[in-house]
Amino acid sequence: MITTSPTYPLPSEEVTLSFTTTTAGTTARWMLTSVPDESALTEDEYLTDAAGEYVDTFTPDVPGAYAVQCDIFRKVYGRVAYEGDIAGDEREAYCETQTATIYVGDVLDLPIVTQLGHGVTVRLGIFNATCRTAAFALPLTDASRVAALDATAVASLATCVGVAVTALEDVLETSVTDLRSIYEAHRIFGASSVHVAADTVNVATAKRPYAAVSAIEALNDVHDRLLAHMRSESCHTAADTKNVPLCGKAETKAQAVALSAELRWRVYNRHRLQTGSPAAHGSGGDGTNLLTAIKPLATVIRDYLDALLVATAPTGEQTGAVVAMNALGFTRAA
Predict the structure, then answer these.
(1) Which of 17, 54, 95, 249 would disulfide-bridge 25, Cβ 3.0–4.6 Å?
(2) Cα separation of 216 and 198, whole Å?
């Protein structure tokens, strides 16, 4: 079996190769039999150093899949027939060949940017089909940096590690369809109980999306309809001016992913249960029209945006400075 150190290498990191075998083999010669298209590394030649000595290391230059071959040998000594017989010299005998594919990670960024100019980048290390590293990077403001230290947000970020990329979040077509259908059911739900009256005005007009472009259009439509519904005092006891989004309407897929997560989990999911300060709904709110279960990336987006509003300081930060930045809009002096 072939293993590497580090286990999850990145471009420009030296990779050390090692093997285990059930044969008597003790030495190996390594070669790359396939490299990514953009790589400048040589294929089908044993790895050697500048002096021509065999080595067990290489440095990948781009992300992607590197196929390696390990030819394993054992040391043998022949029977000596007379003094000086070269048959007794040390030689190598071939034992076996092992192969493996080493995935050198792609570092991928998803920016979260609010209407007030705060934000951070969610940076994931993707190795083959799985997320192996996750971090917050490139905070836009001091408040953004402090929010990236929030314990809840950091814990949510950790839940992305070890998760298949396809399980990090639903594709836009799916998440927007879920939000659209649940919102449509909510706005007419519980007339004279949950709502004062059914909302027949703020109807989502964009059709169900079957592509990313139409999903962005439908998401922005739901954004407008949902916020108008929340402000309406003809169907609520009081307008919901609490559960408002921090992110603006989307133009790109990345903006749409962030907005979809926020509209579902920070806005709609809290609005439907808003019964006090402000008392938007009666009868305990809407416990019927529930979204599909939240996924790791949406949790990260929700919790990071929440952290931008908190007045508690994470370890190493001053409470007063956090309050001044998050509650009063101060920025750190240059």
Answers:
(1) 95
(2) 27
